[in-house]
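Postdoc handover notes: sequence design on the structure in folder B. Input tokens:
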């Protein structure tokens, strides 16, 4: 495959993505393929590579029933999609820093002395950073992984819709997660569109960008 064809494939993925609200309920994404989609999504960048995202894949009838009650305005996406992925940010993400950097050392991506210095620097930093500032940081990181997840799903031939209309104050506890630790970011419905989604327009670049 040539570079040009790869570029064209990527452009097709981006330009063909739509926010789909009605899915074919007969189409089910296997756990194996969903795992692959999530693995591709987690290649997204994150601040100091903390990877603070956590995914709750809701695909069982029981899970969807719980989610329906939390997102009544988006019931169609919940009931017809193959799954709804709840994206959370982990306020304890720094607990994994030593493991993440240690794995980089094991794979030869980073010398041990660099890892030790970075751990010392970041341990000091994250001991001082206000909780609100850390929360804002992980929300940005989780936004990056969410977009990559939607593009990965599109590359696999599926459709998605990012959802912000749900009860964020109750979702963690409703699924047995620690409310103070896991910050809700968005829901992403995933499946096969049952009908073509409405096309949307974008502002021209000269309205949203400038060069200096």
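Designed sequence:
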């Amino acid at each position: 495959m040539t570079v040009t064809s790869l570029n064209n494939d990527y452009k097709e993925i981006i330009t063909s993505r739509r926010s789909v609200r009605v899915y074919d309920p007969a189409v089910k994404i296997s756990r194996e393929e969903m795992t692959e989609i999530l693995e591709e999504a987690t290649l997204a960048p994150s601040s100091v590579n903390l990877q603070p995202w956590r995914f709750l894949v809701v695909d069982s009838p029981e899970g969807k029933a719980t989610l329906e009650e939390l997102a009544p305005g988006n019931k169609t996406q919940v009931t017809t999609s193959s799954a709804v992925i709840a994206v959370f940010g982990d306020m304890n993400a720094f607990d994994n820093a030593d493991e993440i950097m240690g794995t980089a050392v094991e794979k030869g991506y980073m010398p041990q002395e660099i890892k030790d210095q970075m751990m010392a620097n970041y341990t000091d930093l994250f001991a001082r950073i206000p909780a609100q500032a850390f929360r804002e940081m992980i929300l940005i990181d989780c936004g990056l992984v969410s977009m990559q997840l939607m593009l990965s799903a599109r590359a696999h031939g599926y459709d998605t819709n990012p959802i912000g209309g749900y009860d964020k104050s109750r979702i963690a506890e409703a699924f047995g997660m620690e409310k103070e630790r896991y910050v809700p970011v968005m829901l992403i419905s995933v499946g096969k569109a049952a009908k073509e989604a409405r096309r949307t327009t974008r502002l021209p670049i000269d309205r949203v960008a400038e060069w200096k």
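Context for whoever picks this up: Residues 131-155 form the longest helix (25 residues). Don't rerun without checking with the PI first.
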